[in-house]
Design goal:
The chain is an alpha+beta fold. It contains 9 helices and 17 strands.
Length: about 290
């Protein structure tokens, strides 16, 4: 009888040790205060991911007569998650032509690696490029590296107070077309479409969807018209069907590239640009979305 109780007790102990609740107590917390102090700006915590954003409000970018709002396509960011005793960072910096290589050199100096360099827009003045970077190590050290790279640009780090923004009626119509809810931010309407069918592993850890592994659609309204920008996260087999759907609806392909260098599964990111009737463009995005596993 005693041996039976002993075995039962051992089994219960093993079960508790393996349980998520017990394991959670041993998980090291991300030092978000240290990250914010190192970068010089507070971020936002989403689940286990901490993200600090850097809008390039210091530069006026035009595409034809459209002045691009930072929230449409001039938003840099650095995201951090804990991975064992280390942290992983992944992000995207918005740079002018003459800032590209100084920023790359500083990132490399500080142990942060370049994973992509590309455009997000077409026809813009001045020309804008985007540097994707990755890193693994102490989160505060990684954040200091990001801050030193940012210091080589004119990216403002001061937080700007913003009042809650009301979605215009046209945004509700676009939500119905796309099939997902969105929100206003920086005078731009944002819809983020998750890729729940894809689970991304990179840098020795799982990368959550909130860390850029999704499909964002951004609308900068101008009456019934809108400038749209964003990118599709795609499996290779989805790429050309999506391109055909976009082009059939007057939406231009801006760039096709990777964002990471060691990710599983293989992914392709495709940025798009258009200006025109907002509802018509939303229908074009939906037609392209229907050609993916989203």
């Amino acid at each position: 009888m005693k041996s039976t109780k002993l075995v039962s007790g051992l089994l219960l102990s093993l079960t508790l040790l393996a349980s998520p609740a017990f394991a959670q107590r041993d998980v090291q917390r991300l030092n978000t205060e240290g990250i914010a102090s190192a970068i010089g700006k507070q971020g936002e915590l989403t689940g286990e991911m901490y993200k600090v954003s850097f809008p390039r409000s210091d530069v006026t970018v035009r595409v034809g007569s459209v002045v691009i709002k930072p929230a449409l396509s001039l938003m840099g960011w650095a995201a951090f998650i804990k991975s064992g005793s280390n942290a992983v960072t992944y992000g995207d910096l918005v740079v002018l032509d003459d800032e590209v290589n100084p920023v790359i050199r500083k990132l490399e100096e500080r142990g942060l690696e370049l994973s992509a360099l590309h455009n997000h827009l077409l026809h813009e003045t001045p020309r804008i490029m985007f540097i994707h970077f990755v890193g693994r190590g102490d989160e505060v050290g990684l954040a200091k590296g990001v801050r030193e790279a940012l210091a080589l640009t004119k990216s403002p780090l001061s937080a700007t107070a913003s009042a809650p923004e009301t979605k215009p009626e046209i945004a509700t119509e676009i939500e119905k077309i796309i099939g997902y809810q969105g929100n206003m931010g920086g005078d731009v309407f944002h819809i983020t479409v998750p890729r729940n069918d894809i689970h991304v592993a990179a840098m020795g850890t799982m990368v959550p969807g909130s860390m850029g592994m999704n499909t964002p659609f951004n609308f900068q309204f101008d009456g019934k018209n809108a400038a749209i920008n964003g990118d599709f996260m795609l499996r290779p087999s989805e790429l050309n069907p999506v391109i055909k759907a976009l082009q059939a609806n007057g939406i231009e392909v801006a760039s096709i590239h990777n964002h990471l260098v060691d990710n599983e599964p293989q992914l392709v990111f495709m940025h798009f640009w258009a200006y025109g009737d907002a509802v018509g463009l939303a229908k074009g995005l939906k037609a392209a979305l229907d050609r993916t596993g989203s």
